[in-house]
Amino acid sequence: MAEVDEDALPEDVKLIDCLPDLQNLLDHYVQRGRNDGHAGNGLVDYIYENFGAAQKIDAPVETWIRDKLPRANKIKPGKSYLAPQAFTKYHKVKSGRLAPIILCGGVKMGGDKIGHFFQLGYRIYYRKMGMNPLFGREVLEDHGVAARKAYNENSFFSIPDIAEQGAYRLLERKAGLSAPPKFSQADWNHQKEMNTFGIDSSGVYSPADILANDAGALFYAELASSKIGTPDLGKYIKKSWNESATLSKYKPEIGT
């Protein structure tokens, strides 16, 4: 889901904080995971599968926010608000739909920030340990971006080479002939916002996304080391997740 901020929330629409709902949902899955014998990184993987794993872009928790939280309108308060995209400054965003606006931990934000927290935070958590369980997906994302760029620029002759390079990367890693390169968290975050999770997909480069990614990695580290209970989500949520507080950058055709 694409970026959104509180500017898209009408003054007469009131939001109820959804952090208790989100924490209860997480508590439920953490307890269920522990009951099923998951611990350490096994519990990390279990929570990721139920909150962060995504077939395309939207993480399961983003779908939960969109489908399960009661909608607010001008008549009654609710826990999410879906702004009509055509009437916001994001009317040119390419993804075709905005994230719902939520109030979470006292911070107004797009629901996509929670998705970034659970989805990309997981990737950073493992990459910092020199592991990359989603290597195959990242190869497909990276080379898919390159192939789409070639297509848009009518460089059709280069698309087979791009696909071949991606296949070689996968086979080399599968055969143990290559290892993950030294991980730079800042560079990785930047590339995601320049490509699949930002400029290339929505036309928006969001520093707030990056901050949510980094917080998610810290959350997963705490989860892996915990023996009982559930990490408190509230301590990871920051005012900087609000797009209005942490200004985004836009492609020229979108910027206002």
Provide a descriptive summary of the structure in words.
This protein is mainly alpha-helical and 256 residues long. It has a domain at 6-132 and 207-250. The chain has helices at 19-35, 41-52, 60-68, 112-127, 135-152, 159-174, 185-194, 199-202, 207-225; strands at 101-104, 107-110, 204-205, 249-250. The strands form two sheets. The protein has a two-stranded antiparallel ribbon. A hairpin with a 2-residue loop joins strand 1 and strand 2. Helix 1 (19-35) crosses helix 2 (41-52) and helix 5 (135-152) runs antiparallel to helix 6 (159-174). The chain is globular, with a radius of gyration of 19 Å. The two termini are 20 Å apart. The mean pLDDT is 87.
Give a quick set of tags describing it:
two-stranded antiparallel ribbon
